[in-house]
Design a protein that fits this description.
The protein is mostly helical and 144 residues long. The chain folds into 2 domains: 55 residues, no CATH class; 72 residues, no CATH class. It is 28% helix and 0% strand. Helix 1 packs across helix 2. It is elongated, with a radius of gyration of 18 Å. The two termini are 36 Å apart.
């Protein structure tokens, strides 16, 4: 068993992230949210999300923290009509002003190793030139 310990400061960040993610789900029409809590608890729109997560997430084992790296599937090409291209060379979804894909799905194929560093490099590449969303309206946390 992996013995992962989170500091209280880290748990605060996890709880806050869960509150924001839960608000996003409900803002988009969800009628219930099934967070990856070890208790299996379901969250409903009328609840106090801060209180729910403060009660439910006390230790690292109280929530499943995981990730996946889907490789390929969103081809990158300058021409939006070439080879079913999804994103341009700046990782921006063709035809959009404010949607970037910066995960391993833009890789041309599976690289057969953990893609975390390469994925982070893609995100840095996509956002490192300048503010990718300059001039684009962004939802404030209070709106979520």
């Amino acid at each position: 068993k992996l013995d992962m310990r989170l500091t209280e400061e880290e748990l605060v960040v996890v709880r806050k992230a869960m509150v924001v993610a839960t608000k996003m789900h409900f803002a988009d029409g969800a009628i219930e949210v099934w967070p990856a809590l070890s208790s299996g608890r379901v969250v409903y729109p009328h609840e106090d999300f801060e209180a729910v997560y403060a009660e439910e997430i006390q230790h690292a084992d109280d929530i499943t923290l995981s990730s996946a790296h889907p490789h390929g599937g969103n081809p990158m090409h300058a021409d939006p009509h070439a080879d079913n291209s999804v994103v341009d060379l700046d990782c921006r979804v063709h035809g959009t002003a404010n949607v970037l894909v910066t995960d391993a799905s833009v890789f041309p194929s599976c690289i057969r190793v953990n893609a975390q560093l390469t994925t982070m490099a893609m995100a840095q590449y996509a956002t490192g030139h300048s503010d990718p969303f300059a001039g684009v309206a962004v939802l404030e946390e209070a709106e979520i």
